[in-house]
Amino acid sequence: MYAQLVKSEGMKAREEMTPQEIAFQERIDRGEKIEPKEWMPEGYRKTLVRQIGQHAHSEIVGQLPEGNWITRAPTLERKAILLAKVQDEAGHGLYLYSAAETLGVSRDELMELLHAGKMKYSSIFNYPTLTWADMGAVGWLVDGAAIMNQVPLQRTSYGPYSRAMIRICKEESFHQRQGYAVMMKLAQGTPAQKRMAQDALNRFWYPALMMFGPSDKDSVHSAQSMAWKIKINTNDELRQKFVDQTVPQAEYLGLTVPDPDLKWNEEKGGHDFSEPDWSEFFDVIAGNGPCNKDRLGARVKAWEDGAWFREGLMAHAEKAAARRAQAAE
Amino acid sequence: MPSLPDMTTPQVAELARHQAEAHPAHPTVPQPDEGQEAFFETLLRIGDSALVLGHRVSEWCGHSPALEEDIALANVALDLIGQTQLWLGLAGEVEGQGRSADDLAYLRDAWDFRNLLICERPNGDFGHTLMRQFLFDAWHHELLKGLAASSDPRVAEIAAKAGKEVAYHLERSSDLVVRLGDGTEESHRRMQQALDALWPYAGEMFLGDDKDAQMAARGIAPDPASLRAGWDATLRHVLGEATLQIPASDFAHKGGKQGIHTEHLGYILAEMQFLQRAYPGASW
């Protein structure tokens, strides 16, 4: 879930809708896709820009915690896999910024909002990657949680977003397997490696649960987004699904989920589990996570240090165009 | 402060005897098969250059000036790491002591590395990184053309595969050097500075030694000096279009191919080899 706490418009009752809005809602209800040049309510457009933008930002900021271990990967094969994975994240960023562009907002505008702290990215990327096992935990848990959210979004109502999600999901599920493979190797390795794996699970478990956003009872933005099929499942549904899927995977690894109250509930057919510390979540969202300053700082630095490069390319393109025009005269 | 007494020869001999008793001799460093030493060294030179440059390029991941560059640089780094696996894998095979590509990458110290010095130069600004890549790609492309005609079919096969990748690297780095050289005043200045700073590290690519001579005589690898004409032609063409001045000096730093490196390599290895060194024998 790379989009948390996306602000949406208040839910409109049907009797408050204009005929155009009613027709739009009916198209969505019939499962039709909305395409870029078609009419859409301004609230739909704005909510999508926020959500897709936040998702895109998460992909590019998400390069950093894993990029942190590329130069220290323990074998040539692991280095290649990690590089390819981080490259995929950048690619996801590209598809998503392109999807956002179809809604009339440029990549540069979105980047500037990110750099100014006016747009968010997923809270998870504000946690540090401290050992190699974190490369396993991030793939397994973070990509796992992202997939949980993104698989239903393949059916989202906005065509370009839906198509981007279909491509992204294929790659994410590959990443999750790679992450799990890293964990498996560690869990079956030396005692030090096993300790490393357990430590990574301990640190990433609750931040991964936070990726789904606050509990439904505290989530104020969901109803309209769900009516528009921008959001398909509630936060708590997805969190439950994630826990139920992940617990047996941890057991298979011989690792312990850091929740003493975790237990199977036969009646509901799912696990009971402890809620993450939501005050920590709101701290991280407010900019006080362990890595917020470093992550955003790194992105701003890359952008500012690269200004001359982007300007150089633009200037050359203009010169080349002028030369072509002159030659054509 | 009392000074220590002078150390006498019998004391030194005694010390050595104690040391030898306390610490049994280290296992000997593996030696390549008879007659294969020059071949082994040559493969290390090619493989280590790919490894060390791939490492440097990968440092940019997530920090480059545009998303497209993040993707492209990751591609180049991936290709170089893939080539490293092939070259060092073959090096281990030729050495015949059972060392894998990973053993060679992660368990040698700096003095056993044979990469060109240009590969270990720090990234600097993005222009510096691109210029380093261009100078290397132009050479790498010529080298792989020569190696594709190697008398050793294993070498020819790897070179043919790597050659396709490197043709693209050269196309990309040439294109960016032209656009930035002939871009704004600032981009021009930065690219010229990068060229001037890296120039003294280019000449090493064409310096041969007796190992290179043996390889050329056996038809395994081209004589390094023979690659210069093609490289010069590429540079004249690309740098000319980029409106950049080729420096007049022909001074060349050297030593990388013989294992005498800059101070930078030690830090690269400290980082790269950390896990293998901290957890010896673990499998990842």
UniProtKB/TrEMBL annotation, chain A:
Gene Ontology molecular-function annotations: phenylacetyl-CoA 1,2-epoxidase activity
GO terms under cellular component: cytosol
Pfam families on file: PaaA_PaaC (PF05138)
Biological processes, Gene Ontology terms: phenylacetate catabolic process
Gene3D superfamilies assigned: 1.20.1260.10
Superkingdom, taxonomy of origin: Bacteria
NCBIfam families on file: PA_CoA_Oxy1 (TIGR02156)
Protein name as catalogued: Ring-1,2-phenylacetyl-CoA epoxidase subunit PaaA
Annotated source species: Paracoccus versutus (Thiobacillus versutus)
UniProtKB/TrEMBL annotation, chain B:
A GO-annotated cellular component: cytosol
InterPro entries to which the protein is assigned, alphabetical: Aromatic_CoA_ox/epox, Ferritin-like, Ferritin-like_SF, PaaA_PaaC, PaaC
BP GO annotations: phenylacetate catabolic process
UniProt superkingdom: Bacteria
SUPFAM superfamilies given in the database record: Ferritin-like (SSF47240)
PANTHER family (UniProt xref): 1,2-PHENYLACETYL-COA EPOXIDASE, SUBUNIT C, PHENYLACETIC ACID DEGRADATION PROTEIN PAA
Protein name: Ring-1,2-phenylacetyl-CoA epoxidase subunit PaaC
Organism listed in the record: Paracoccus versutus (Thiobacillus versutus)
